[in-house]
Specification:
The chain is an alpha+beta fold. Helices cover 29% and strands 25% of the residues.
Amino acid sequence: MRSAFFRPFILSRTTFPRLPHSSYSFCQYRRHFNTKIIYQRWQKFPSVLRDTLFYSVIFISWLPVLWCFHTHVFQLMWVTGRSMYPFLNTDINERLVRDILAVRMWNPTEGLRRGDIVVFRSPTHPNVVAVKRIIALEGDSVFTRDPYPVPRQEVSLGHVWVEGEHPEHTRWSYDSNTYGAVSKSLIIGKAIGVVWPWSRRSWISAHGWRGSSRVMERRPDSGLHIIP
């Protein structure tokens, strides 16, 4: 009776090879044996298939990291439409070439300045991502354009005033003159450079913007004054 009870254990243990270290437990024997079988079967696959599976596993394991980097650190964006013409999409009238922007996604609302080009979600259509230039910050006063209902508007706290640059503004630009100042919480990125077309690649900086005569900047010491 006793020998019959222990027979499965004895038979199963004898099927595993003896390892040089006598301190290995039965589970370690079994783990080693299973790993050896898997390795032997793996070697039977063609080398091309082994390489494909190996690099596929590496690529899949990096997908979460790439997604986090793309969503929260940096990404490339195509600019569609004519609202930022002629600063962006300069060749859209002749060749329908769209610019590609390098956009910083990490903490985009830090250090916002007049002249920055930002990427934000439309206040009226959250699924739409827009690209516009900041012309006024919180506390500034803006002389608005059509179709805004009042001729002058002060930018409220935590908001910025954004506009496109197309000469036919009312036709091609859907910006703060339509839906008002944009909350900073809707800003998801700040454009830092033009990547494509290659002939127009350059950094984007607010220092090159000359300002707008329709904006009265608020300064703590002297109140409102028109930006030169």
